[in-house]
Design brief:
With 386 residues, the protein is an alpha/beta fold. It contains 15 helices and 8 strands. The chain has a 4-stranded parallel β-sheet, with helices on both faces. The chain has a 4-stranded parallel β-sheet with strand order 6-5-7-8, with helices on both faces. β1, α2 and β2 form a beta-alpha-beta unit. α1 runs antiparallel to α10 and α8 runs parallel beside α10. It has 2 domains: 151 residues, Rossmann fold (3-Layer(aba) Sandwich); 226 residues, Rossmann fold (3-Layer(aba) Sandwich). It is 52% helix and 11% strand.
């Protein structure tokens, strides 16, 4: 039996669609975002509502393939399909879009999407360990700030930026606390529910209300834990899911894992813990602090990306995982190539079983994935019960 508050979280999908419509009609500015490299704090400081944009389901992929190649990442095709079909309310009501050059596929798709709505593209440096990259990324933060000031005819002050940083830091802190509940063995929260709670936050029109809801979820889960109520039993293999982002509609691998008896206790990907790991330094110049935080994101588009290995190691130890599954969307070349490095690290350095699953948003390969997952889990169950 899942926590009762999960019903409220599921209902937010419909409620948020109405809220963004009402906010737009009331004259509130909406900034549509696609990536965790997007500094939502700057949008908040402009008295706008930052919202995540749809791009996690198979539904609009066919429409996108009329203009985009079929052998392209499903996340890119889904995002573009929603845009050209006007079936994502968050895209429809966005006044401006913020894009980023994380990968070549998205970068070229944004050229087409930019003809639909006003768009600002932030040029992301591909290395994160030198001062030149930080200077460049800080300059990109300033450009985005200037873009919003011009589009919305206002001034964004340091005071507004600091207030926005504190609010988003509070949201990240609460989400991190929720995620860390599953370091308990057995895990008190199913990975599917964890994914849904974290995915929905990007669509919240009212961040403070969203924070309060997650705080109530945490309180309920903690109370259930005291009573010995868990999502899985103690012998369920504990899995860390890494790799590409997972959202509502693209959760099939996560679903197969848990239906096969695994307990997905940690979501390392950028729709999970990756964005929560480091907060923005509230003591520094706000633009510099934002640049430092976002540039530290251990995404596969970075070279080198040792930060991802470090995060996987910390999560594997803290969450006491029995195995690691690396999810790669078809045609996501950076994550696919990096999977080789992750596999060697997991097997040789952590001594844990590793499975890579390369797939798309469709259901065509669910049977094949299930066979591979069940075989993978069987080896862990035998080791756990031996």
């Amino acid at each position: 039996m899942r926590p009762k508050i999960m019903e409220e979280i599921e209902e937010l999908r419909g409620i948020n669609s109405l809220n963004v419509k009402e906010a737009h009609e009331a004259g509130k500015k909406i900034v549509g975002l696609y990536c965790i490299f997007s500094p939502q704090e700057i949008a908040l400081a402009a008295d706008a509502i930052p919202v995540s944009l749809c791009g996690t389901t198979q539904d609009p992929v066919g429409d996108a393939e009329r203009e985009l190649p079929r052998n392209l990442c499903p996340l890119i095709k889904s995002s573009y399909g929603y845009a050209i079909t006007d079936t994502c309310p968050y895209f429809y009501f966005s006044d401006v879009l913020l894009a980023e050059t994380t990968c070549d596929g998205k970068k070229k798709m944004y050229e087409l999407m930019g003809k639909i709505k006003p768009m600002h593209v932030m040029n992301l440096p591909q290395t994160a360990k030198d001062n030149d990259s930080l200077d460049m990324w800080r300059n990109e933060m300033v450009k985005f700030k200037n873009f919003l000031e011009k589009e919305f005819e206002l001034e964004i002050t340091d005071v507004q930026l600091r207030d926005a940083i504190k609010l988003v830091n509070k949201e990240r802190t609460v989400m991190k606390k929720l995620h860390k509940l599953n370091s308990h063995k057995p895990a008190p929260l199913a990975g599917l529910d964890m994914m849904l709670a974290q995915h929905i936050k990007g669509f919240n029109v009212d961040k403070r209300a969203g924070i309060e809801l997650i705080e109530r979820l945490i309180a309920e889960v903690e109370e259930r834990t005291k009573k010995g109520i868990y999502a899985f039993d103690e012998n369920a293999p504990r899995i860390l899911l890494t790799g590409c982002p997972v959202g509502n509609g693209s959760e099939k691998v996560l679903k197969v894992l848990e239906e096969s008896g695994a307990s997905v206790v940690a979501l390392e990907n950028c729709s999970g813990y990756k964005d929560l790991d480091i907060l923005v330094d509230e003591t520094k110049d706000p633009i510099t602090a934002l640049a430092e935080k976002y540039l530290s994101t251990p995404c596969s588009c970075m070279t080198s990306n040792d930060g991802r290995l470090d995060l996987i190691k910390r999560l594997a130890e803290e969450y006491k995982v029995d195995g690691i599954v690396d999810l790669t969307w078809i045609a996501c070349h950076t994550y696919n190539v990096e999977s080789y490095t992750v596999r060697n690290f997991v097997r040789n350095e952590l001594g844990l079983p590793f499975l890579q699953i390369e797939t798309d948003y469709s259901d065509s390969d669910i049977g094949q994935i299930k066979v591979r997952v069940e075989a993978f889990l069987e080896t862990m169950v035998n080791a756990i019960t031996a």
